[in-house]
Design a protein that fits this description.
The protein is mainly alpha-helical and 681 residues long. It has helices spanning 2-27, 37-75, 82-115, 121-154, 159-194, 206-247, 253-286, 293-316, 333-355, 360-367, 373-419, 422-444, 449-462, 470-491, 504-545, 558-572, 574-591, 593-608, 611-629, 639-680. It is globular, with a radius of gyration of 24 Å.
Length: 681
């Protein structure tokens, strides 16, 4: 077992070194300080302020949660696991350090990307890809090192604490970043609407700079922390599931060890696939073939993972019969893995078809947008509801078929299948963020036509992976949380075959859990509304009070605006965070394990019905605006565009805040419940 852990740890260390080497090589490149330098400096200031504030908040949440668990353990005379708390600290610190380093790297890379956009497209594309790879390698590498370090030094049981640390750090990165981004984006549009003379998209507008900063925070750190927390959940669920099956007497120790080998092998395979995909993309650029470059890289990673997984499973040669769900076909883990892999592709394609402006649903909404904002909103809600039906069907098919071929453990394997190419997906998403925001900066700084053309083409290439976004994050959050919940139920000694038998505590917990996502979302929306109004006030104040800002001779106070916005974002997380963290702790200690399991299950059931819906409503409304903006149905100067813009502002709250917050909520409640049960057992 130690050899497998060493291999995974070495893989994590390898990509950290590779990412650092790529960054070092890029950082040595010279660049001229041009018209974009001040804009990049503004963005850099915003990122540094966010990094400082968010790292401090992550440290605080570690201490507060640890103290609360300690107090409840003493009050109710239950054990307090210092081992789990140590792993919890490590998870939070690892995610926090990864975020801090990424926020340091981004402003260093931006001027190099823009400078290399002055020549051939291939050169600009290559440096954007290398920049994305350097950030992605470092982030994933640290997460893998954290998993293997906890396993090696603290033991297998500590991984639950590590997953909790990752989840709570992701809570701040994902939701604070989403609040920061959404309030700036919507606030800039509203400020320009309510007060004449204030430009919505302009380098003089501090909200525009905050919006670009928010894009990096939300699209790189937010999305990355979301899918990486799902990735950690899947790894931990596979390992803990094996322990639970062993403890329940379904498998022997040799089989349990084999099942624990699998996710650690998959960690190493995922790293290899990420590097292979990156090198393939560089080769494609060198050959001058850039069409579908990013998608082809993901497809190659899927193939590498599929072949490698087949070889590993044959090597492990796992034969298990005495396991819940394993029937006449025996234990077929590779089939369960393929089901997860194909399920991820199906989810991504469905999100793409239902929301992308390249397909009929979004184009139809755009054609009817001239009738007003209300019509666009109703059309968006319709798309969200219909696509949610497909999403639920996919989840049921993935869960039931993987169970049929590999029992309960098959669901965990399917989760690993969905997340096996997480490294390539994350790198691709970072590429999209770099390309989109580089294009914005070039437009704002009046760069040359060749720079604008290259940045626009690269931005278009990044948009080809739009499906690998919020919809995918919701899907993997649901599957990874489901398999963790099943392991939780098994450890809590809940009879899975009779889960629906009426039990007062179980049903009470279920009802409370079902209502939690609605209360959670309501509090966040109210906080977002307050932040939008404050951003509008701050933008108006700066244009009133800063001399010659209208004439572009003054400088917007981005530091103050960004610091103010970050503080508001973090403060807005206090009440939702208390609800999310204290609810499972109080219910578990005060009312027992059954109510806690019912609560976790109710939150899961309610949450996974909402995450995909919010994501697709927001994405389709955003793409409709983008489609009209590109010259369709009257273009950017038309009344139709104004209606679409207002609908998009509503959609921004859905896709940038509500959908990711629900993903984090269901994962956090599941892992906190798991940890409380370990303390109560």
């Amino acid at each position: 077992m130690l050899t497998v852990v060493m291999i995974a740890g070495f893989a994590g260390l390898l990509i950290v070194i590779l990412g650092a080497a790529l960054f070092y090589g890029l950082n040595k490149l010279d660049f001229e300080r041009g018209k974009n330098s001040e804009l990049i400096e503004f963005v850099s200031e915003g990122l540094h302020i966010f990094a400082k504030r968010i790292f401090s908040s992550i440290l605080q949440i570690v201490i507060y949660v640890s103290v609360v668990l300690f107090i409840f353990s003493k009050v109710f005379n239950k054990q307090f696991s210092w081992l789990q708390i140590a792993a919890f600290f490590i998870g939070c610190i690892v995610m926090g350090i990864s975020a801090f380093i990424a926020l340091y790297m981004i402003p260093k890379l931006l001027p190099r990307i823009i400078e290399n956009s002055k020549g051939f497209l291939a050169e600009s594309l290559n440096i954007t890809l290398v920049s994305s790879g350097s950030v992605g390698f470092v982030i994933l590498g640290f997460i893998v090192l954290g998993i293997t370090g906890c396993y090696w030094f603290l033991g297998v049981s500590s991984l639950v604490g590590y997953a909790l640390g990752i989840a709570l750090a992701a809570y701040f990165l994902r939701i604070a970043g989403s609040l920061y981004k959404a309030s700036a984006d919507i606030g800039a549009d509203i400020a320009a609407t309510v007060e004449k003379g204030i430009p919505a998209f302009d380098r003089r507008n501090p909200a525009t700079i905050l919006d670009i900063t928010g894009d990096f925070v939300a699209d790189i750190l937010g999305f990355g922390s979301d899918i990486l927390s799902s990735y950690v959940f899947a790894v931990v669920a596979c390992i803990v599931f094996a322990e639970a099956l062993l403890g329940s007497g379904y498998i022997d120790k040799a089989s349990a060890l084999s099942l624990q080998y699998f996710p650690l092998f998959m960690v190493s395979i995922g790293v290899i696939a990420m590097v292979v995909s990156f090198l393939f993309s560089k080769f494609r650029i060198k050959m001058g073939k850039i069409n579908n470059l990013l998608l082809e890289g993901i497809y190659l990673a899927v193939v590498v993972c599929g072949i490698s997984t087949y070889v590993v499973l044959n090597y492990l040669n796992i034969e298990i019969f005495n396991m819940p769900g394993v029937g006449r076909f025996g234990f077929m883990p590779f089939v369960a893995y393929l089901i997860g892999l194909l399920g991820a592709v199906s989810l991504a394609f469905t999100s793409e078809y239902m929301t992308s402006c390249r397909y009929k649903p979004a184009q139809r909404i755009a054609s009817e947008a001239e009738n007003g904002t209300v019509v666009s909103l109703f059309n968006g809600f319709s798309i969200g509801l219909k696509s949610n039906g497909f999403f639920l069907i996919y989840i049921i098919i993935i869960a039931t078929t993987s169970y049929y071929f590999a029992g309960l453990y098959g669901i965990a394997i399917a989760a690993m299948g969905m997340l096996s190419v997480v490294g390539s997906i994350m790198t691709t998403n970072i590429f999209t963020a770099f390309s989109s925001n580089t294009n914005k900066i070039c437009k704002l700084s009046d760069e040359s036509d060749i720079v604008k053309k290259n940045s626009s083409e690269i931005d278009g290439l990044g948009n080809t992976t739009a499906a690998v976004g919020n919809g995918f994050a919701s899907g993997v959050a649901v599957i990874s949380t489901l398999c963790l919940f099943l392991a939780l139920a098994m450890i809590a000694d809940v009879d899975l075959n009779n889960l629906l038998i009426i039990d007062l505590k179980l049903v009470s917990g279920l009802v409370i859990g079902v209502s939690l996502p609605f209360v959670f979302s309501g509090v966040l929306l109210r906080s977002l509304n307050k932040m939008i109004l404050l951003v509008v006030d701050e933008v108006s104040r700066q244009f009133r009070e800063i001399p010659f800002l209208y004439e572009e001779k003054g400088r917007p106070d981005v530091i103050k605006a960004s610091d103010y916005n970050v503080c508001l974002s973090i403060n807005a997380l206090t009440i939702p965070g208390v609800i999310m963290v204290l609810s499972p702790i109080v219910l578990g200690y005060a009312f027992g394990i059954k109510m806690l399991v019912g609560f976790a299950f109710g939150t899961f059931l309610s949450g996974f019905n909402q995450g995909f819906y919010w994501a697709n409503v927001g994405d389709v409304l955003h793409n409709v605006k983008h489609y009209i903006e590109n010259g369709n149905y009257g273009g950017k100067d038309s009344t139709t565009y104004k209606y679409a813009l207002m609908a998009d502002n509503v959609g921004d709250a859905f896709k940038d805040l509500l959908s990711p917050s629900i993903n984090i909520l269901i994962k956090s409640v599941a892992i906190i419940s798991f940890l409380v049960i370990l303390f109560l057992a």
